[in-house]
Write a structure and sequence with these properties.
Blueprint lengths: L2 E2 L5 H9 L7 H12 L5 E2 L10 E3 L4 E6 L14 E2 L3 H24 L3 E6 H6 L1 H12 L2
Parallel strand pairs: 1-5, 4-6
Antiparallel strand pairs: 2-3, 3-4
Amino acid sequence: MKAKMDIWAKEKRSSVMSKIRSKNTKPEIKVRSLLHRMGFRFRLHNHNLPGKPDIVLPKYKTIIFVHGCFWHLHDNCRDGTIPKTQQEKWKEKLERNVQRDQEHSTKLKELGWNVIVIWECEIEKHIDLVEQRFIELRKL
């Protein structure tokens, strides 16, 4: 994995990081808006399911996780890299996130759920492909 140098001073980085939310993020809201326009009905952040999925489509027995490329180490993505500063700390934290994601997906599949992961960069650059995945979901 590539490492990148932080562009901000420690205080600025701390301020920015403190504002990051874990739910109702902009990418998540874009996906929910797309699903709603397409006529899908869904539930949000079901605490009874492993990983508290971002979006649950009960009719299709499908879970959607909307992942940030940085926080979930998206492979082959410019943002899915470990920062150069405090590398060990970040590597451990981000790899733990990836491991937890895999565990949640495995448990959900064992419970009979279809699991879809949508990456932040997909939403920004290829929303048409995300929409196509939802069209395919209707065929299930």
